[in-house]
Amino acid sequence: MQRRQFGHQAKSAGRAVYFELLLNRMQVVLARDYGSFLPLGRSAFERLLPDLAAWLPAESLQTIVTAYMGHAGYAQAGTEREAPVELRRRALDGIEAAHRNALDALRSRLFSEQEIAALSRLGGPYAIGAPISELPTSDARPARS
Questions:
Q1: Which of these, 9, 75, 10, lies nearest to 41 by C-alpha position?
Q2: Phi, psi dihedral angles at 142 (to 5 degrees)
Q3: Residue 97's closest CA among 118, 66, 125, 128?
């Protein structure tokens, strides 16, 4: 019974970290594409790391920790305005990829196939990410009444 309780607690912790990673990924994409550097969250990760460390395989845990280690690079990219734009973009691409890898490492452990399908219908596995060229133009939007 305690094992089941621990599994439920660890899965809840993983879900909290998953959605924090998802929000952080969105912030990284906004910074990369629009130069808007909003703070990244890490409170769920810091609070729930012990649960995750006891539950996840080492490889998955390292993937998640790597995404959070990118926060320092993100903060530096936001303050180093003298850095070449291409260098900043490459750094943010790497940080965004680390977040995608962490989300991928967690998704199948946290959600059933039905939940993954439902989340995908609601905006894909990462919630955002359509290139600007794929976004609807003002002509394609439905008219308001």
A1: 75
A2: -65, 145
A3: 66
CA distance 137 to 109: 37
Q: Tell whether the torsion through CA atoms of 103, 109, 112 and 113 is positive or negative.
A: positive
At position 18, the amino acid (one-letter code) is Y
At 138 the pLDDT is 42
Residue 89 pLDDT greater than 90, yes or no: yes
Give Cα 54 distance to the centre of its chain: 21
Residue owning tokens 């490889």: 59
pLDDT digits (tens, 9 = 90+) for 19-42: 999 999 999 999 999 999 999 999
Nearest to 25 by CA among 89, 91, 116, 103: 103
Type of residue found at 6: F
Q: What is the C-alpha to C-alpha distance for residues 38 and 130, in angstroms, rounded to an integer?
A: 20
Q: Where are the domains of the chain?
A: 2-127
DSSP-H helix ranges across the chain: 2-34, 43-55, 58-79, 85-110, 113-121
Percent of the chain with pLDDT over 90: 59
